[in-house]
Amino acid sequence: MRDLSRLFQPKSIAVIGGGAWCTSVVEQCRKMGFDGALWPVHPNKSEVAGVAAFADLSALPGVPDAVFIGVNRHLTIEMVRSLREMGAGGAVCFASGFLEAKAEMADGADLQTDLLAAAGEMPVLGPNCYGFINYLDGALLWPDQHGGVPVETGVALVMQSSNMAINVTMQARALPLAYVMTAGNQAQTGLSEIGLALLRDPRVTALGLHIEGVGDLGAFEALAREARGLGKRIVALKAGKSARAQAAAVSHTASLAGSDAGARSLLKRLGIAQVESLPALLEALKLLHFAGPLASNRVASMSCSGGEASLMADSAEGRDVVFPALTDAQVSAMREALGPLVALANPLDYHTFIWNDAARMGEVFGQMLSGEADLGCIIVDFPRPDRCDPSAWDCVIAAGEMAVQRAGKPLALVATLPEALNEERAARAIAGGMIPMHGLDDALSAIEAASAKDAPDARPVLQPGTPRNPRVLSEAEAKQALKAFGLAVPSAVTARTPAEITAGTSGLSFPLVLKGLGAAHKTEAGLVALQLTSAQAVEKAAEAMTCDGYLVEEMVGDAVAELLLGITRDPAHGFVLTLGAGGTLTEVLSDTASLLLPVTEKDVDEALQTLRLAPVLNGYRGKPGCDRKAIARAVLAVQDYVTAHAAGVEEVEINPLICTSTDAIAVDALIRLGEAP
């Protein structure tokens, strides 16, 4: 792996180009007080932004650690080659028009190849990259304004959107930013490699990622492993929810399991917390910075309003947040402090009887923290200082400081409205040992993200291939292929014509099922006939079908439930396993769980338990439950098939998997298989 330390923590910065963007890089470095060497490079200018310029790279007084290249794409390649030859530490390539613009510029891909050859092992960010800000060392390869300040420790953010990176620097949430990085089109240095370099800086406390695409799956797994080893958490905002459906999918599985399911499964598997909005990302990083990973999701909530207590409880509904009941000792101590009129519960409405009595408020807050909760939240919205006097609310900060000192647990001041906690009061809260948090929903998302989770799965994700010319196997072919790996299927025969059916069914037990071959969704096409009790009935049903051939099977009775079992190739994330309610109502019920291969029997069992269908699987209202081990065997059999054919598999689907009290039998199967490259 390349050493990015010279690029990210430079002692000298060169800026190639004299346009407004390059001028801004020089200005921002001076404004931030960068104390290293700053070397503008321009053939015709004597100075850039008041700093003496050099005519070319050969005129520099030394070899630069970091270089911002702000010239056109063709000249960029020449500059990169020269920098590599002189031993520079790395470069940011600002120019666009490379692989990311291949639809508009036919030579973009070729230029990217040339750029990579020119760089060799010298680290390059971009191209089409805004650069980065190092607030720890005051080093900015950044061609625009920003809203940050120097810090001694803080969180790192890697964004795949430059404009979003600018926006993040303008936050007024008291979040210490150590680095803000943009990745560009990641021609050479990807998201994971950048993240690793930042996590290895001991001054960085947590890492936030805005992800459009993971890129190198193995490198992303390595990033997650190293983060855990360093005791630092990663929080991700993943773009691409709307790409869930795959328009060319043959089966139900693909439409249910697309790339969003793959991304979610991957992040969960690797122990990376996922949030749904940029504010939630910032709040989660803030909580991790000041409190570190939380020991649990148990929260003690305090407010002076019943409405706020109810809002907290309602906002937490459906989230992975718990409000533990108060202990007898807590109740006794708080009853003495609050009197008989306050209902003691968690969330707590402590009323205003003790308002402005910081000592008694501190006693109550401390008692709330003394129980089973691992984080306290004081709900408080401060009056706006431009029109009101917020000093009467300072008792909350004073009381919170007392509670932190007494309990030794993290305590957050949570404003239900982000604008109701300004930077000045947020700074005072931090000085008192508390964590200012902006927005109730985002604070709860942050608590979920920072709560302790199970250790990530150490097994590598099964890597998919890039199959060519995929074809759909017939149902009969698919079942025989899966049966060879241990999947239970009904006894069956195939026939080309209705006339062949009578002889073929002699060895089968009635009732039978007849299926016409050659269509993906047979039920909708009228190619399924059930409960056929004689060979003549089968032949008559076959004559009514227009199809390429016939499959005759023994019917599976005594079904407890029908499941969907599907595995889809997701090029970005691996193979996505979908388990859920099956049969003809699969899309209507939308009751599924997704995992990445490989999985274990335990993984399958836990996923089944998350389904709304779980009570039926377990045995509902006196009825027998399914054989859960048989379901797991079916899943593992399909997984074994996919593992053996990983280079060619596009998707495998069993729908339905008939689950009885003693078995799990695949009564329909689809395989889309291509040629390995």
Throw out a few tags for this protein.
677 residues, flat, alpha/beta, 7-stranded antiparallel β-sheet
Descriptive overview:
The protein is of the alpha/beta class and 677 residues long. The strands form 6 sheets. Strands 9-8-11-10-12-13-14 form a 7-stranded mixed beta sheet, sandwiched between helices. Strands 20, 25, 26, 27, 28, 29 and 30 form a 7-stranded antiparallel beta sheet that branches. The protein has a 5-stranded parallel beta sheet with strand order 2-1-5-6-7, sandwiched between helices. Strand 3 (47-48) and strand 4 form a beta hairpin. Helix 3 packs parallel to helix 4 (108-119), helix 6 packs parallel to helix 7 (217-230) and helix 10 crosses helix 16. The longest helix is centred in the C-terminal third of the chain and has 17 residues, at 628-644.
- Can you summarize the main beta sheet? 7 strands, mixed
Report strand order across the widest sheet: 9-8-11-10-12-13-14
Secondary structure: number of strands = 30
Fraction of residues in helix: 25-40%
Strand portion: 15-25%
End-to-end Cα distance, whole Å, is 28 Å
**Overall average pLDDT:** 92
**Which stretches are poorly predicted, pLDDT < 50 over at least 5 residues?**
243-250, 254-258
In one word, what is the shape? flat
Number of helices: 23
| Alpha-beta content class | alpha/beta
Radius of gyration: 31 Å
Walk me through the topology.
Blueprint: H1 5-8, E1 12-16, H2 20-32, E2 37-41, E3 47-48, E4 51-52, E5 66-69, H3 73-86, E6 91-93, H4 108-119, E7 124-125, E8 132-134, E9 139-141, E10 154-159, H5 162-169, E11 177-182, H6 191-199, E12 204-211, H7 217-230, E13 233-238, H8 252-257, H9 259-269, E14 273-275, H10 278-291, E15 299-303, H11 306-316, H12 328-338, E16 348-349, H13 358-369, E17 375-379, H14 394-407, E18 411-415, H15 423-431, E19 435-438, H16 440-450, E20 468-472, H17 475-483, E21 492-495, H18 501-504, E22 512-516, E23 528-532, H19 535-543, E24 550-554, E25 561-570, E26 574-581, H20 586-589, E27 592-596, H21 601-609, H22 614-618, H23 628-644, E28 649-659, E29 664-666, E30 669-675
Parallel strand pairs: 1-2, 1-5, 5-6, 6-7, 10-11, 10-12, 12-13, 13-14, 15-16, 15-17, 17-18, 18-19
Antiparallel strand pairs: 3-4, 8-9, 8-11, 20-30, 21-24, 22-23, 22-24, 25-26, 25-28, 26-27, 28-29, 28-30
